[in-house]
Design goal:
The structure holds 2 protein chains of 2 kinds. By secondary structure, chain A is mainly α. Chain A has a single domain, classed as Winged helix-like DNA-binding domain superfamily/Winged helix DNA-binding domain (Arc Repressor Mutant, subunit A). In chain A, 60% of the residues lie in helices and 7% in strands. Chain A is built from 5 helices and 2 strands. In chain A, helix 1 crosses helix 3 and helix 2 packs across helix 3. Chain A starts with 8 loop residues before the first helix and ends with a helix. Chain B is α/β, with parallel strands linked by helices. Chain B folds into 2 domains: 206 residues, P-loop containing nucleotide triphosphate hydrolases (Rossmann fold); 64 residues, no CATH class. Chain B contains 9 helices and 12 strands. In chain B, the strands form 3 sheets. A 6-stranded mixed beta sheet of chain B has the order 5-6-7-3-8-9, sandwiched between helices. In chain B, helix 6 links the parallel strand 6 and strand 7. In chain B, helix 4 runs antiparallel to helix 5 and helix 5 runs parallel beside helix 6. Classes of the chains: A mainly alpha, B alpha/beta.
Chain lengths: 116, 273
């Protein structure tokens, strides 16, 4: 896994799981890797993975069956879709808009690309 | 738990630590950072019982390691940077050391050698430096000690081995274990070490988890230098600006930038954390 320099690793690990939920690699009720398994696979501190799983659990995307492991919740896909949309609008869109303004791209010009 | 209280240490007249207090809790992989000569290796020697404090105390699970009691020695293992190359093969070596460590696991040793791609039946003298080092890391982990100290463990490892190193360390940390990695090669252990301890001449400048660091400091990559920032550094493509995290935005800690920020703002950082 390639990490980017901007977002905290624990959130990047969440994003990786979001992507897998959206592209169908992880489905509702699938068991995900344990904290230790994922830590060992990525070479990342297990405490960091734990933080990712806590965040995913708090937003209802995964749930914990005591003694068995973490599972993808039934409503995960909808939740992830909403969350990623919000993130895109808050984090990525402003930069795109900034660049468009910098380059003098008008809304009409943009619409032409958007509708292609 | 390792507890250092009001400790002074000097080599003859050269003061290394002046009244430092520091603890290391179980279940963590600590990163021990500091400029050359600030005493990282000395600290590891003190907690391994290889050096004795002049004043103050250092205890491992409540016992002074310098007493060299078997009950302490059997739960501590230290790989120093300038290790002596053992005789014979790694497997023969680990079997002879293993008798002193009650939780030593030979099967684990062989598995680790396989993971790290070294042949434990080959003589140390016929191995490259990197292979010797990987054999010793496999040895250290298979002794299953509660405390494991690694001084510059990634020096001499090739690129794939560094990634293997991170994987095996992450796999073998557990709630009962404390690992301390002393290093200058912070990129090699990025995402592995947490908390971070930064030593300076005779004092501890910072001991904090990544969560604590990101809640107090904001690491921003920008096209311009931020004149308000605690520390700014030019990188290819822009600047990394480290500022006080007023907006409460979580960012990714860049350890090199953190280190430089701490070095440039010693007093402010000590007050902040």
């Amino acid at each position: 896994m390639e990490f980017n320099a901007h977002k905290p690793i624990y959130l990047q690990i969440c994003s990786q799981i979001y992507e897998k939920i959206l592209n169908g690699e992880l489905k509702a009720e699938d068991r995900i890797l344990s904290v230790r398994e994922l830590g060992a696979e990525l070479g990342v501190n297990p405490n960091t993975i734990m933080r990712s799983y806590e965040a995913l659990q708090n937003s209802g995307i995964i749930y914990n069956k005591r003694g068995i492991g973490y599972f993808i919740s039934p409503e995960a896909k909808d939740l992830v879709m909403n969350q990623m949309k919000t993130e895109f609008i808050n984090d990525e869109l402003p930069e795109i808009v900034r660049k468009m303004k910098l380059l003098g791209i008008t809304q009409e010009e943009f619409a032409a690309y958007f509708n292609k | 738990m390792i507890e250092i209280k009001n400790l002074d240490f000097a080599y003859k007249k050269q003061v290394v630590f002046n009244n430092i207090s520091l603890s290391f809790e179980k279940g963590n992989i600590y990163g021990l950072l500091g400029e050359n000569g600030v005493g990282k290796t000395t600290l590891l020697k003190l907690i391994s019982g290889l050096q004795q404090p002049n004043v103050g105390s250092c205890t491992v699970d409540g016992i002074d390691p310098f007493k060299r009691l078997p009950e302490t020695l059997q739960k501590v293992y230290f790989i120093s940077e300038d290790f002596a190359i053992p005789e014979g093969t790694p497997e023969k070596n680990v079997k002879s050391i293993g008798v002193f460590y009650p939780n030593f696991d030979l099967t684990l040793f062989r598995d680790l050698c396989k993971d790290m791609e070294v042949d434990p039946t080959r003589k140390f003298s016929e191995m490259s430096f990197g292979q010797q080092k990987k054999s010793l890391i496999a040895t250290a982990l298979s002794l299953n000690t509660d405390y494991l100290f690694l001084d510059e463990p990634t020096n001499g490892l090739d690129i794939p081995s560094k990634s293997l190193f991170r994987q095996v360390i992450s796999k073998h940390i557990n709630d009962g274990r404390t690992i301390i990695i002393s290093t200058h090669q912070v990129k090699d252990v990025e995402n592995l070490i947490d908390p971070i301890v930064i030593l300076d001449n005779d004092e501890v400048l910072l001991k904090a988890t990544f969560a604590e660091i990101t809640s107090k400091l904001y690491f921003d990559f920008a096209t311009e230098k931020d004149t308000e920032a605690l520390y700014s550094e030019m990188l290819p493509g822009g600047y990394i600006n480290v500022s006080i995290n007023k907006a409460g935005i979580e960012s990714q800690v860049n350890i090199e930038a953190l280190f430089n920020t701490v070095m440039h703002n010693k007093k402010a950082i000590k007050e902040m954390f």
